[in-house]
Write a structure and sequence with these properties.
The protein is α+β, with helices and mostly antiparallel strands and about 130 residues long. The chain contains two helices and six strands, in the order ββαββαββ. The strands form two sheets. Strands 1-2-4-3 form a four-stranded antiparallel beta sheet. A two-stranded antiparallel sheet has the order 5-6. It has a domain of about 80 residues: Pseudouridine synthase. Strand 5 and strand 6 form a beta hairpin. The longest helix has 12 residues. About 15% of the residues lie in helices and about 20% in strands.
Length: about 130
Amino acid sequence: MEPGSVENLSIVYRSRDFLVVNKHWDVRIDSKAWRETLTLQKQLRYRFPELADPDTCYGFRFCHQLDFSTSGALCVALNKAAAGSAYRCFKERRVTKAYLALVVRTQSQASQSSWFWNTGCTQVILSPKCC
């Protein structure tokens, strides 16, 4: 996937009530800060100006969050009723999010007996037997 730009927003699913987009890595969902050059909010406003809702803080009803550095599917409710329904689904844990980490081992790492992946708060050690 190429780096995010205002033009290259990928749509995964669209209905009358929801829009699911593929959020790029290193793109914030929303921001009121002028220094943020690219946000998902700006991508949506560029691609779907007719869907922006002036009654919301950021113009769109984001059903959940993805971290800045995380890419993946993100659900946007297109009306108040859909947002309420999505909120209840998340609150009642009827929705799950799954994360997949793709790890590539370089030739120089091939002789090591295990891989180390530092996530910032925990370190995951993968032995070659499990991979």
